[in-house]
Amino acid sequence: MIQGSIVALVTPMNNDGSVDEDSLKKLVEFHIAQGTDALVAVGTTGESATLTTDEHCQVIQSIVNYAGGKIPVIAGTGANSTAEAIMLTEKAQKLGVDGCLLVTPYYNKPTQQGLFLHYKAIAEAVDIPIILYNVPGRTACDMLPETIGRLAKIANIIGVKEATGDLKRIIQIRELCGDEFAIYSGDDSSSCEFCLAGGNGTITVTGNVAPCLVHKMIMAAIDGNREAALAIDAKLTGLHKQLFIQSNPIPVKWAMTRMNMMGRGIRLPLTPLTDDCFETVEKAMRQAEII
Fold first, then answer.
1. Which among 36, 42, 130, 195 could disulfide-bond with 46, CB atoms 3.0 to 4.6 Å apart, if both were Cys?
2. Which of the 8 DSSP states describes residue 18?
3. What DSSP string runs through 97-162?
4. CATH tag, 4-224
5. Is residue 161 annotated as a catalytic residue, yes or no?
6. Is 3 helix (H, G, I), strand (E, B) or coil?
7. What tens digit of pLDDT does each residue of 212-267 get?
8. Torsion over CA: 283, 25, 156, 92 (sign)
């Protein structure tokens, strides 16, 4: 089981929207040096929605290559078509990832039985570890703890990213799934309390900008060191909030540019962070002592 800070990595882009491989390599090396526990390639923060299938797979392959076995790589392979999700997950497995993260099908609003059968079909098609991803704020689909409990009985479904921000769900999911099932926060603002309450880590946006601090905070929380965890989290409060001042990953990509880690490239329909938000995001970065 991977524990700690799992960073949902941004996909750096050139001004024309093409993937910036040099900056991508730089980012992977940065996270290895900063103590990040694992990387998610091409999740929501990695702009999976606007990459072609070929680009999606190429970014995964590049991150696996740049990681060189020094840090686990989890590929985002979710889709609202079960057949497409299977195809992406099979490709990711061949590319050498350590696991796959699959968001609930968005837009088409499946039933709980539909969700169960969707994930069951994917799990049966591969033998790679699978992490479920529940983020109803984006998908208009809420996977209930009871459904997660059913899916946890499938051998290679090993965890869930729970992004509702409802801390009560940790207790429900733990009771239904047992101690060997990984439960990750998908909500930066509550990730500290989430791990203090028994979560195994966070899949984080904030960790792009403050990887060392997020790693230390999460590990302190997992170890039950409440005072230390909350003290670090207090420095991160501004980032947790302001990195979502506009749609993710708009603010975090601006912050990474401000840190000279990459250029400002982003793909439509997303647009660069507007000038009126610069000072707000920069203030949060200064609070975290990043700049």
1. 42
2. -
3. -SEEEEEPPPSS---HHHHHHHHHHHHHH--S-EEEEE-HHHHS----HHHHHHHTTSTTEEEEEE
4. 3.20.20.70
5. yes
6. coil
7. 999 999 999 999 999 999 999 999 999 999 999 999 999 999 999 999 999 999 99
8. positive
